[in-house]
């Protein structure tokens, strides 16, 4: 299993970082994309994903390459655990908010028609969720009042004792895991149903050409997330119901493997879901093929006067 993880992450990490930088550059420096409200949450998600790609993924590759033989300090283990769990949960929470906000942007755009409305319904939730999540997990990982556990052999070598407290288990497990996943599922399905209903049944209200980009952008991201993260949530719920982890260890290992693919694949889904970036990628790919001589017309063969074959 470790070899599968190593090669999967290794083959994806560099293209994913390049794609993240490409998408971020375009979202930040193309004015129309930068000003589009629906892109703001994806800009934040790309920055978070890029942070994880240049930290925990290289560490994971190093760990797998040396078969877990790696002496690490306590502070390093704390930082790794915080990034691996705390920052990734922030990633999930923001995506859950994106599924709610997309309904506002498509079906209730008057709610964000002024600067004041945009401040309260668009910017303020993002500004609140980021420090809330970061402060919550900073306290758990760096300021635990109880004795923490440090391990040598597991990849995640630090387990904060606060995550064993009953209140924290309920809040982190139910609110941050189960509720956020349910929000993504329910609001994504609801978005698809509402768009299809208003387009084909009532023939009014929603301009499909205007809003299809926002719909496709969110649904493709949600679909990726559910494929990669829903198995882990299912295993988590099964464990909460009383089934021992030892009985579902194989399922747990594969579900954890899938969760790490979420961040690596997100930049590609984000790029392909935006028609402007998709067009640019096609042009870049065609130019690359021309540079490497792929797709050119074959050279014309002719016979020279000395009967040798020449190329024209």
UniProtKB/TrEMBL annotation:
One of its GO terms (cellular component) is plasma membrane. It comes from the Eukaryota. The keyword Transmembrane applies. GO terms for molecular function: G protein-coupled receptor activity. Residues 19-270 form the G-protein coupled receptors family 1 profile domain. It is found in: Cell membrane. It is a multi-pass membrane protein. Its main location: membrane. Keywords: Cell membrane, G-protein coupled receptor, Membrane, Receptor, Transducer, Transmembrane, Transmembrane helix. The chain crosses the membrane at residues 7-28, 40-62, 74-100, 120-143, 155-171, 177-197, 218-245, 251-274. SUPFAM superfamilies: Family A G protein-coupled receptor-like (SSF81321). This is G-protein coupled receptors family 1 profile domain-containing protein. It comes from Adineta steineri. The lineage of its organism: Eukaryota, Metazoa, Spiralia, Gnathifera, Rotifera.
């Amino acid at each position: 299993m470790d070899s599968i993880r190593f090669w999967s992450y290794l083959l994806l990490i560099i293209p994913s970082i390049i794609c993240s930088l490409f998408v971020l550059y375009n979202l930040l420096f193309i004015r129309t994309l930068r000003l589009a409200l629906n892109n703001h949450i994806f800009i934040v998600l790309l920055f978070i994903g890029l942070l994880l790609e240049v930290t925990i993924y290289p560490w994971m590759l190093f760990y797998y390459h040396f078969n877990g033989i790696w002496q690490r300090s306590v502070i390093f283990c704390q930082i790794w655990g915080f990034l691996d769990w705390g920052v990734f949960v922030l990633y999930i929470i923001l995506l859950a908010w994106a599924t709610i906000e997309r309904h506002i942007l498509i079906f209730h755009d008057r709610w964000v028609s002024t600067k004041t409305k945009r401040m309260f319904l668009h910017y303020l939730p993002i500004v609140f969720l980021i420090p809330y999540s970061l402060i919550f997990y900073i306290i758990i990982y760096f300021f635990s009042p109880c004795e923490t556990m440090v391990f040598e052999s597991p990849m995640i070598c630090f387990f904060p004792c606060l995550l064993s407290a009953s209140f924290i288990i309920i809040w982190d497990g139910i609110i941050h895991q189960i509720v956020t996943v349910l929000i993504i599922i329910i609001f994504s399905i609801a978005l698809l149903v509402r768009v299809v209903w208003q387009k084909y049944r009532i023939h009014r209200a929603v301009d499909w050409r205007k809003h299809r980009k926002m719909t496709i952008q969110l649904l493709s991201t949600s679909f990726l997330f559910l494929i990669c993260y829903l198995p882990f949530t299912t295993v988590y719920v099964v464990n909460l119901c009383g089934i021992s982890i030892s009985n579902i260890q194989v399922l747990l290992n594969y579900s954890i493997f899938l969760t790490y693919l979420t961040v690596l694949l997100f930049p590609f889904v984000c790029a392909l879901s935006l028609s402007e970036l998709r067009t640019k990628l096609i042009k870049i790919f065609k130019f690359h093929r021309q540079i490497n001589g792929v797709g050119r017309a074959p050279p014309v063969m002719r016979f020279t006067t000395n009967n040798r074959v020449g190329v024209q």
